[in-house]
Write a structure and sequence with these properties.
Length: 297
């Protein structure tokens, strides 16, 4: 009797599911989310390999090449200081992703901790926390960020603080609503009855069951953080020169050079649009995958 060669077919005749099969299924079901993931991967590659991709120093001035239109020497042209726009766009991805990931991760984790604790302990602690959250959520994100920047000042670290703080109550409110339902489950009462402490119950039984809304908020915050950073930088309250940042590039050329050198505002504006659009598409796909109410099959 001949032996069967190892292959994709199992002994029962069914084809084994591979990682590529799962990837292909996700691509077919979430084509827009796949497009968003591609945008994120390209941005990550730009940020990680900016030193290799960028042909020029993004902070180097060249007054001999001021406002040069796109050409083979300068793919996207130069700005009013003679700096290569392509190099600044590439390095700007590093700034955008750094601010976006730090703000989204810290804000989401802070909201996770406050939301789960508020739902679990309840009573006066929950009431006080929700009133504080109501105060923060009464203000739009950009207004709250502007107020915090006015207090702490400008700079990359200050921008991160200004964007992170408004994210925390928004994530806490969403996580709390899910944690309230988990708190009433029988296994939580069983854990209490056998003497489990509060920290163990929260970390082992409640927090893992609110991961889905936490991840949805995390991915949503990424695009919002990039847009907020660009908005603050455009207003002169965010990242400061000569750091390459997309919003800062818009501030320097959006109005003055819109007609005489349109490539100066177009490229950073397009970079911001594509980045935020990509993260939003990816976040919507994550929401569709993790939210059982949105699953059609």
């Amino acid at each position: 009797m001949s032996t069967m060669e190892a292959g994709p077919e199992s002994n029962t005749g069914f084809r084994r599911t591979t990682v590529m099969d799962h990837v292909g299924r996700l691509v077919r079901r979430q084509p827009l989310g796949t497009g968003g993931a591609i945008v994120i991967i390209v941005m990550l590659a730009m940020a990680l390999f900016a030193d290799v991709i960028a042909p020029y120093d993004p902070e180097a001035n060249s007054f001999e090449h001021m406002l040069v239109p796109p050409s083979w020497d300068f793919l996207l042209g130069t700005d009013q200081f003679g700096r290569d726009l392509f190099s600044r766009i590439v390095y700007g991805a590093r700034t955008a992703l750094f601010v976006g990931f730090v703000c989204a991760i810290v804000g989401a984790f802070g909201g996770l901790v406050l939301g789960v604790a508020s739902a679990y302990f309840g009573g006066w602690f929950d009431m006080i926390m929700q009133r504080i959250i109501d105060v923060f959520m009464a203000f739009p994100l950009i207004i709250m960020a502007l107020a915090i920047v006015a207090i702490f000042g400008t700079g990359t670290d200050k921008v991160i603080i200004a964007i992170t703080i408004p994210f925390i109550p928004r994530c806490a409110r969403v996580v709390r609503s899910s944690a309230l339902a988990v708190r009433e489950m029988p296994y939580i009462d069983a854990a209490r009855s056998i003497g489990y402490g509060h920290i163990r119950i929260i970390m082992k039984h409640i927090a893992p069951n609110v991961v889905a809304p936490f991840l949805i908020m995390l991915t949503a915050f990424l695009g919002e953080a990039i847009l907020l950073e660009a908005s603050l930088s455009y207003l002169g309250l965010g990242v400061q020169e000569p750091t390459p940042a997309w919003g800062l590039m818009l501030q320097g050329g959006a109005e003055e050079y819109a007609e005489s050198a349109p490539w100066v505002p177009i490229w950073p504006g397009l970079a911001i649009t594509i980045a935020v659009f990509g993260f939003n598409l990816f976040g919507d796909a994550v929401r569709d995958i993790l939210d059982p109410k949105l699953r059609t099959r």
